[in-house]
Write a structure and sequence with these properties.
Layout (H helix, E strand, L loop, with lengths): L1 E2 L6 E7 L6 H7 L12 E6 L4 E5 L3 E2 L14 H4 E5 L2 E4 L1 H6 L5
Antiparallel strand pairs: 1-5, 2-3, 3-4, 6-7
């Protein structure tokens, strides 16, 4: 995935149907300025700069194929068992947590 505003490449490893962060966090991050505000899916992402972030659905888009790398983040192995055809394969634990997304 690619963040539309900040242009970072990331991989999703979890999500919430709506923003689950505190009101203070949402205010600090400007969630109230987003068209769909907090009433949209928010994703836990492993970012290429080795950080972990929480991003609104409307801020993410598919990354170009050449930007997708198997070693994007040191914790990728905690959530994924393989990288095949430009796709991360969830491990058993992640697949159980999000069975409809596998």
């Amino acid at each position: 995935m690619r963040h539309k505003r900040f242009n970072y490449i990331c991989v999703i490893y979890g999500w919430d149907p709506v923003c689950r962060m505190s009101a203070a966090w949402q205010l600090q991050m400007g969630v109230h300025h987003l068209p769909d505000k907090a009433s949209q899916p928010f994703y836990n992402v492993l970012v290429e700069d080795k950080t972990i972030r929480y991003a609104a659905q409307e801020n993410l888009e598919m990354a170009p194929a050449e930007a997708v790398k198997p070693d994007i983040h040191p914790r990728v192995g905690k959530y994924f068992s393989a990288f095949k055809s430009l796709r991360y394969i969830p491990n058993v634990e992640l697949a159980k947590r999000y069975p409809d997304d596998v």
